[in-house]
Write a structure and sequence with these properties.
Blueprint lengths: L12 H30 L3 E3 L8 H10 L3 E2 L3 E3 L9 E5 L5 E3 L3 E7 L4 E3 L8 H10 L3 E8 L9 E5 L5 E3 L3 E7 L17 E9 L7 E9 L2 E10 L4 E9 L3 E6 L2 E7 L1
Parallel strand pairs: 2-6, 3-6, 8-11
Antiparallel strand pairs: 1-5, 4-6, 7-10, 9-11, 12-15, 13-14, 13-16, 16-17
């Protein structure tokens, strides 16, 4: 007995085209969904600017970086309310919602504009310099004076005075001791030269004309002429001369030396 068989044929290609056409919107929708999901996944997250006012600078930077924010180089200014290193302001302001990676700016306190002048009296000059630097003050001038009690190189006085409130970087003038004034002994006076006396006798040579007789004395005070006269030939002259220290007596007749005596 024969068995009947059915022969199957492949669906027409038109069916496949219609099936592909119907699937395209689904595929497009899937691609759009996956693209939106990827965009949302890679998009920077939003964060809220935290309040860091009054915190130390480093603590504020740590908090901001933990939230994915970048901190710019802080702006620093003097402030009378918060001490040095404390955060004064933040920009963008607190509670503003921003994307991660956003740069934020901090304003940090430099402390008070004013400082107190330290007491530098009777301190070594180098130690005074260090204290002034610590107080953010400048050493503007150093003068030296003699002082009987303050050792050399130590501060005698200062201007402005210790304890005064002045602006930072103000110049301070110091007066530093040179030690006691050295008193030089009065110059020693040499003993006065002894006055010496001598009797001089001169005999005028014989001749036809009168002769000029001159007597000079040279001592510690210089040269002195003590006698000058014209005398007749054969005349005798006796006179007393004096001088101090080493004394030399000279007799000249008509300008020529004829006699010398040292006392």
């Amino acid at each position: 007995m024969a068995v009947a068989t059915r022969e199957y044929k492949d669906p027409p290609s038109l069916w496949w085209g219609m099936l592909a056409l119907a699937a395209m919107p689904l595929l497009l929708a899937l691609m759009l969904y996956l693209g939106a999901w990827y965009w949302q996944f890679t998009l920077p997250k939003e964060v809220r600017i935290p309040s860091v006012t009054g915190l130390d600078e480093q603590a504020a930077v740590t908090i901001l970086e933990q939230r994915g924010l970048r901190v710019r180089v802080p702006v620093r200014r003097y402030d009378e309310r918060l001490s040095e290193g404390k955060v004064l302001e933040i920009s963008p302001p607190v509670n503003r919602v921003v994307k991660q990676g956003r740069s934020v700016a901090l304003t940090v306190s430099k402390g008070s504009r004013w400082t107190t002048v330290p007491d530098l009296r009777e301190m070594a000059l180098e130690q005074s310099r260090r204290l002034l630097q610590r107080a953010e003050l400048n050493l503007s001038e150093v003068a030296e004076v003699n002082h009987d009690q303050v050792p050399p190189g130590y501060t005698v006085s200062q201007q402005p005075a210790s304890g005064e409130r002045v602006e930072r970087n103000t110049g301070v003038q110091l007066t530093v001791s040179k030690g006691p004034k050295v008193v030089e002994p009065p110059p020693t006076k040499s003993p006065e030269a002894t006055t010496k006396y001598a009797q001089v006798e001169v005999l005028v040579p014989a001749g036809e004309f009168r002769r000029e007789v001159q007597i000079t004395v040279q001592d510690d005070e210089g040269m002195h002429e003590v006698y000058r006269e014209w005398k007749d030939p054969g005349s005798r002259i006796i006179t007393t001369v004096q001088g101090k220290g080493r004394v030399t007596v000279r007799v000249l007749i008509d300008g020529e030396q004829v006699q010398e005596q040292t006392l």
